[in-house]
Design brief:
It contains 11 helices and 5 strands, in the order H-H-H-H-E-E-E-E-H-H-H-H-H-E-H-H. It has 296 residues and is of the alpha+beta class. The longest helix has 42 residues. The protein binds zinc ion.
Length: 296
């Protein structure tokens, strides 16, 4: 029971950190710092949930998790229905999450590959981006080993040169910082439980923070106003509707929070509790992961 209790404490810590992140206004001022904490606490939550179920289920063996799992196929008759149920649930949740992540990665990679082929046929290289002759105003980054920045003819007509530069800088930031890898695990979890309002909210929060990170990069080289006015024009034109699956658009909802942040930055300091929260969340993650390898 001690191992399961440790996992439960780690999981509870991750939940508390996640709630703090969901409620904190500071996250919009420091999206990068918030994303680090989101990644650590989410991973802790999944590992500790699976760990707690397996630890409880395999507790009668009196061994560590990994050796007990190795013994399971030969000794499962020694477990009563509650312990066997907990093991089955732990393995199902762990396997379900892992398989779902792999399937989502594969389907997204396929969608991106199809779109890359399409771009080879219809797009032309110009001003550091691929230009598609389409009247709908869109701009997006198609991530991958060789990422592509794509803008439509409609977007080039809609934006001034300064605004277009800012938009391209935003998309390059997505490509350079591999933001698709940050959002992918959360999007896969959302697809796993599409009816969960909490997961939808968490996923939207992560996507918004990633957009803010890219905004910050663009602001660094192009200033605040060109990107803010570009986002406003995109919003008036339907928020980049028509962006393909697997791409990262410049103006996804909710764009208003980003415009406000660009035009009236709050300048809030990183909370003093952030390094402490990082330390606690990382400690919880390391504890949960290492408990799998503890021999007793
Ligand atoms: Zn973006």
């Amino acid at each position: 029971m001690t191992l399961a209790a440790h996992h439960l404490v780690a999981g509870t810590t991750a939940v508390l950190v996640s709630l703090w992140l969901l409620r904190g206004r500071w996250t919009h001022c420091h999206p990068r710092a918030a994303l680090v904490l989101w990644q650590i606490s989410s991973l802790t939550l999944v590992v500790s949930l699976v760990g707690a179920l397996l630890s409880f289920g395999l507790e009668p063996y009196g061994r560590g998790l990994l050796p007990a799992l190795v013994d399971l196929p030969w000794r499962f008759r020694e477990l009563d229905v509650w312990h066997l149920g907990a093991v089955a649930l732990g393995l199902a949740v762990g396997g379900w999450v892992l398989v779902n992540q792999l399937l989502c990665l594969r389907s997204t990679a396929r969608a991106r590959a199809r779109h890359r082929l399409l771009l080879q046929l219809v797009a032309r290289q110009d001003t550091g981006a691929l230009v598609v002759d389409h009247p709908v105003a869109v701009a997006y980054c198609l991530p991958g080993r060789t990422p592509h920045i794509v803008v439509s003819a409609g977007a080039r007509q809609l934006l001034t040169d300064e605004e277009l530069d800012a938009v391209l800088a935003h998309e390059r930031a997505h490509a350079r910082e591999r933001h698709h890898l940050v959002v992918a695990p959360f999007q896969a979890l959302r697809r796993l439980l599409p009816g969960s309002a909490l997961l939808t909210r968490v996923c939207s929060t992560i996507e918004l923070l990633v957009e803010m990170c890219a905004d910050d990069r663009a602001v660094h080289s192009r200033g605040r106003e060109p990107l803010a006015s570009a986002l406003e024009r995109f919003r008036a034109n339907g928020n980049g509707a028509g962006t393909p699956a697997g791409a990262m658009p410049v103006a996804d909802a909710p764009v208003q929070a980003r415009i406000q942040r660009l035009r009236a930055p709050e300048g809030q300091r990183l909370p003093l509790a952030w390094p402490l929260a990082c330390l606690i969340a990382a400690g919880a993650l390391v504890t949960s992961v290492s408990l799998f390898a503890v021999p007793l």
